[in-house]
Structure of Alkylglycerone-phosphate synthase:
Amino acid sequence: MRRWNGWGDDTIDYPLSARALAFLEEAVGAAVPPRDVSLAEALAAVPASRLAGAAREPAIHVAADDRLRHARGQSLPDWVALRGGRLSAFPDGVAYPVTSAEVARLLAYAAEVDARLIPYGGGTSVVGHINPEPGPRPVLTVNMRRMNRLLRLDAISQLATFGAGVAGPELEAQLRARGFTLGHYPQSFEYSTLGGWVVTRSSGQQSLGYGRIESLFAGGTLLAPAGETVLPPFPASAAGPDLRQLVLGSEGRLGILTDVTVRVSPLPEHEEFHAFFFPGFIEGTTAARRIVQARLPLSLLRLSTPTETRTTLALAGHERLIGLLETMLGVRGVGDEKCLMLCGFTGRPATMRDARHAVIDITKEHGGVNAGRRFGEQWIEGRFRTPYLRNTLWERGYAVDTLETATTWELVPRLLADIESALYSALEDGERVHVFTHLSHVYPHGASIYTTYLFRLAADPDVTLARWAALKGAASRAIISGGGTISHQHGVGRDHASYLAAEKGEVGLAALADVIARFDPDGRLNPGVLIETGWREIA
Amino acid sequence: MRRWNGWGDDTIDYPLSARALAFLEEAVGAAVPPRDVSLAEALAAVPASRLAGAAREPAIHVAADDRLRHARGQSLPDWVALRGGRLSAFPDGVAYPVTSAEVARLLAYAAEVDARLIPYGGGTSVVGHINPEPGPRPVLTVNMRRMNRLLRLDAISQLATFGAGVAGPELEAQLRARGFTLGHYPQSFEYSTLGGWVVTRSSGQQSLGYGRIESLFAGGTLLAPAGETVLPPFPASAAGPDLRQLVLGSEGRLGILTDVTVRVSPLPEHEEFHAFFFPGFIEGTTAARRIVQARLPLSLLRLSTPTETRTTLALAGHERLIGLLETMLGVRGVGDEKCLMLCGFTGRPATMRDARHAVIDITKEHGGVNAGRRFGEQWIEGRFRTPYLRNTLWERGYAVDTLETATTWELVPRLLADIESALYSALEDGERVHVFTHLSHVYPHGASIYTTYLFRLAADPDVTLARWAALKGAASRAIISGGGTISHQHGVGRDHASYLAAEKGEVGLAALADVIARFDPDGRLNPGVLIETGWREIA
């Protein structure tokens, strides 16, 4: 069963070795886990619903369990609220529609009872996309997970239409049975949904090969309070601004996507992942940039800083293997400042062979050592297990959060340093922070910067939240002033909404608010997300 | 000097052989050229300006010559109006700003005198983007051609910032001198500008390799009546809807782009173009689809129907060479229904060798014969000369126009047939039409359909225009009802505006109108383009 106050399936754990714990203690100090509220306590705190759960189709579930499980996403503040018993608002009901017609009925019902409406995919947001706001109007959460079927496969055009609530594994299973793949693997893949990927501009780990969701999203149907909009799956068009690009990143504010047509690929003939180690981050960054600027057809390229590489190896277990690796690397001049680069090759065997040779040539010029396929394959096998580490860390008294941005290659080194130093110096109460970073996605014209920060949980949830706010605020300000976007892959939600004007401009943000008002004149859908409540009055 | 009533430089001609003329006579009948008005007659018909050309910076030119040369673009109705002396409106003045500050002053001046404002790039629109509307308010055309400099090259990030008025050849010359290329080659390349490409969602002939302008456009600055918007050149972002995608396709209605940052590539190490001939269009289409769906790294792929192949060979001259080719093809089973496919290979030599072999393997499976590089190289050398043929044809009494769309592979064959048959049967006065088509751009998930139609000019310009309207209307209705977009690469302008709601939907179109109203509250910029005047009142 899925955890109500943590990540993932409760039969899966990510154990930490004694060496890993010693590493953490060394980094930020020994920690004591706070007392979490129990499920029974949390359920007891759910107030009465303001919606009638009476007989209607689709049913509106008002049980405390449904409402608690849809109250929060997976951000660190969400965890603090869930585990610390600090939930300020709950949906008044949860519906699980099966058809577009049922979604339309829910929109009509919300208008009838003047309820707010929150479209809900996998509930994996880490920036506050699906949290109800306290307020006088009742809140209905629309969980899309039952709209999860392959509705049409146009194999000639390599286009597949799904119910928007389909989650990653269900989507891939249905495509693979027919010889296709979408190739979209965000870390939330186990639970996050196609519709959620679209409205948050999700990026998968192999987006270098398959493309971000922006290029995979061919079309679909959006049901909005103002009416239905069908987005046709043209391969390209010069017929004015592309409405798909307004739906991408709309974060539930324009309507509810009921079906989504995606561009799929035949299953790859060949796939392999290689690890490389570089003597330092500058060498690794230069090699990464040269590889992607050579337009080599890789499916994945990520590069960790020395601290992230050290942390990854310390937390991974496999002590003997890593010892052997470090000896081997040392002989070849790669020592304490070593940086791990992972490269994925997915496609035609001949093309991949050529690409691999070209990558190896470039890495060698920058002192890179090819550590072969073993580390790469291990990473790819364990890639959806990583979020489970959050559970273990919390239970050991450690908070972990991530933040991310993207910028041009010219600005990457400085922005990365600014973000890390903002985090290191953000806490004024003497608490230490462990910070590490990787370039998670590379483009010919820039890269994303993905930073993890780890610190101790306080006994008092409010103190933990204050630490988080100080860290997150400092890093976000560094991102904006350093020329980065406030998000490369997590979206805006509530946590980033106040930073949006910096990159959209006042006129641009006002235009987006106008678009929202056109699709949803009564402000019924997901208010406060993407654009702050009250922002229109300010502008 | 540039022709005032035709295509291109008046020292360049595209002669037609006797065989070519015989081919045309056979197709649609012998023709008599209409009498065109002279430049002196056209200048005499320019009315007095409603704007003062007095001393101000930048100067506003009110001479008849400036105003005549900015009155129309390059569509067939534009030519009919220019050559037939049927111009209904002229700009009242033309300004040629050099700096962003001058553009800002022009926006302020337009507000002051309540003028309408038309941003003007190369004047190569074929759908009515830059034509002034008759009306009580004066019209100021802002010709951007003097804002044509490379402002910044970030070689590390492969990003180049230009003045938005830079034309194709100037842009490439400035990049090539520094080892880079944009690789964007629309047929209008000689005159069309970077800013024009962006706001019309232009597609270059080698977009298969370099990407459409949508993926080359990294950011820039838009000056609008409501204020300035800076679009940062992030490589990717999940921070809400992408405002660049609202500027792309905005066709001058949101403001004036003053500078544009584009994603550039190093000059390719290797480039070659190959011609293939297929025994029929089905075989060619299947091969084209399989090549692009194999994700082979081509820079160009276009496929002509049998009629287009026949027409191209007839108009090309080189009778002996073509005779030899036809004999060679006949021996290999490629006869009267032969279809020409051109493939471009641009990039690393090893990758290109691999791609070429893979392409040859696929074409062979569908009866394709590789005719080598000669035809391909000839096409690429002459590719910007083709529009000059329009001048020659007009002078021989023939009108020629093109229209285009894109759709999914599944729908391509039917839609292509529908468009051609709509054109063949559109004229009720017994006039014949010669129609031919190619797939100009292919994608894994669909293709563009580019149709040329040729018919006789009437002695009376109004009759010619009526013929055009009947043909264009029939084809546009076929596109919409057959599942195509109203434009893959020419844009909306005035000629396609009434078809836009069919693909954007009522809510979507209203949202776009809202965005326009936000950037340009007084409706000063390019009214009637993209979204029809009066449309908001209807919705």
